[in-house]
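To the wet lab folks,

You asked to see what we're planning to order before we commit. Fair enough. Below is the target structure as tokens, and below that is the sequence we designed to fit it. If anything looks off to you, flag it before the synthesis order goes out.
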């Protein structure tokens, strides 16, 4: 699955649905705890979990898989404010937790995953802060194989100002809760059909983007073989904002054909169609395309590639946020506008995992294009303006990649190395204040040692270097930051920690 949805309305079919974290824990009957990782103000946390590869696993006869872990520690940063001058050092106390639960039964399925970090800045550069990410979905079979009720929740953080450094002061909480029924039936012969209805509530801590949304989809398909299907899909979404002074309600709809193949070693998915948005009395149409290929090259090696183009918006990007080669808490890009935009992207990943060595590699290119007559800057970031016609100051492109390597040196000692590089540009923006730039390059290099004296205890020494280089128009300047952490954690039955921030 691609790390941002290929179409705004298709998410009610493709991506899982969510409910409030507290409610979800009651529904699932479990609140597990584990390790987490985050990068805010240059801080790496102690996370060790990779999506789809839990580090602690307990399997029951009822089809339940869980993982969990906690750790505490202390660290030091030499530029906690990520400032080009007047660097401020800071000692940070941290506590991290993560959990993962997958449960399958005849009537109830759930899949929840959470990673959280608590930072206490001992010299009070910032107030103490909890950051994290929760994604959970629960399905209840009201009528088995026919009528399913789904509840889903996404909780996490996003930047406030896309042009400024990502410090603790430049973050806000976002929560998306979705619920509704899904009806599956066979109108005749081998033909299958699906009708989905969803209600979504989106809440932002700071930005005036709170909304109620109503989503629906219809799918009609036929199997071409025991492993492949082709279908016709139609989706629609109605977004109603609480603040209609700075936001315009919109209708987003799409129609497309879909093909899926699930082989023994290869999965293929392809979509092609059209999409249309009506926002503030203005109508725009465009193409919808998506291609995904997942391949198990060998027992130790997997690879995937995906590409697409469609209309989307900031909430969809937040809800579908996923990691690259480096696992952990991922922060979404700033939601500067509620308007729909055109997303074009391509990405690939490669992963190798053997008994002693694990290596991951990912790369992504993305281009966001806004219609100038649709965009309203809801956050008041008036430093970004453009005098160009048929262009928006929020248009951007981003390219880069990540890698992670872990080697088990002895039975109890492992070493980690990771890095990332991203180049982001706002080609049509000019700046009126001194906090931003039209183009910046962010790089990260980290290393760590892990000592596991027993089955449940691990001790980690981690170092990370962050570097931002300004190469575009604007008064903003770059920064450098070095961070070191020492933590001790409890993780029973620890397996390989793939792609985690050391």
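Sequence we intend to order:
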């Amino acid at each position: 699955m691609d790390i941002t949805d290929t179409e705004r309305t298709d998410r009610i079919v493709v991506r899982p649905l969510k409910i409030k974290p507290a409610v979800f824990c009651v529904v699932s009957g479990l609140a597990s705890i584990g390790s987490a990782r985050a990068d805010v103000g240059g801080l790496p946390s102690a996370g060790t979990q990779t999506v789809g590869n839990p580090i602690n696993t307990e399997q029951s006869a009822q089809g339940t898989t869980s993982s969990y872990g906690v750790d505490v520690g202390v660290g030091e940063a030499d530029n906690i404010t990520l400032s080009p001058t007047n660097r401020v050092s800071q000692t940070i106390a941290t506590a991290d937790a993560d959990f993962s639960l997958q449960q399958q039964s005849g009537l109830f399925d759930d899949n929840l995953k959470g990673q959280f970090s608590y930072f206490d800045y001992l010299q009070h550069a910032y107030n103490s802060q909890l950051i994290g990410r929760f994604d959970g979905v629960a399905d209840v079979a009201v009528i088995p194989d026919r009528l399913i009720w789904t509840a889903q929740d996404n909780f996490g953080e996003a930047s406030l100002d896309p042009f400024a450094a990502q410090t603790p002061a430049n973050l806000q909480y976002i929560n998306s809760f979705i619920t509704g029924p899904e009806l599956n039936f066979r109108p005749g012969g081998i033909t299958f059909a699906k009708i989905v209805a969803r209600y979504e509530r989106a809440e932002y801590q700071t930005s005036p983007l709170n909304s109620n949304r109503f989503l629906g989809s219809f799918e009609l398909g036929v199997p071409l073989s025991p492993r492949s299907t082709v279908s016709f899909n139609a989706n629609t979404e109605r977004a109603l904002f609480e603040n209609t002074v700075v936001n315009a309600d919109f209708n987003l709809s799409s129609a497309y054909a879909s093909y899926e193949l699930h082989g023994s070693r290869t999965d293929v998915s392809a979509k092609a169609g059209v999409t249309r948005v009506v926002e503030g009395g203005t109508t725009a149409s465009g193409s919808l395309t998506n291609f995904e290929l997942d391949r198990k090259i060998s027992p130790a090696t997997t690879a995937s590639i995906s590409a697409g183009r469609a209309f989307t918006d900031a909430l969809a990007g937040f809800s579908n946020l996923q990691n690259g080669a480096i696992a952990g808490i991922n922060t979404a890009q700033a939601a500067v506008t509620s308007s729909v935009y055109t997303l074009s992207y391509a990405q690939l990943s490669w992963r190798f995992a053997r008994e002693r060595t694990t290596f991951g590699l990912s790369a992504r290119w993305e281009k966001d294009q806004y219609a100038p007559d649709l965009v309203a800057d809801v956050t008041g970031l008036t430093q970004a303006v453009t005098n160009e016609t048929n262009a928006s100051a929020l248009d951007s492109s981003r390219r880069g990649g990540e890698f992670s390597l872990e080697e088990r040196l002895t039975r109890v000692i492992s070493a980690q190395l990771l890095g990332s590089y991203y180049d982001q540009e706002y080609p049509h923006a000019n700046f009126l204040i001194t906090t931003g730039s039209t183009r910046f390059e962010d790089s990260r290099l980290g290393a760590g040692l892990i000592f596991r004296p027993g089955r449940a205890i691990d001790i980690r020494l981690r170092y990370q270097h962050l570097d931002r280089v300004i190469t575009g128009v604007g008064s903003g300047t770059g920064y450098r930051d070095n961070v070191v952490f020492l933590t001790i954690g409890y993780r029973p039955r620890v397996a390989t920690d793939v792609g985690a921030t050391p």
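Structural context that might help your review: The helical segments are 11-14, 21-28, 314-319. The two ends are 26 Å apart (CA to CA).

Thanks,
Computational group
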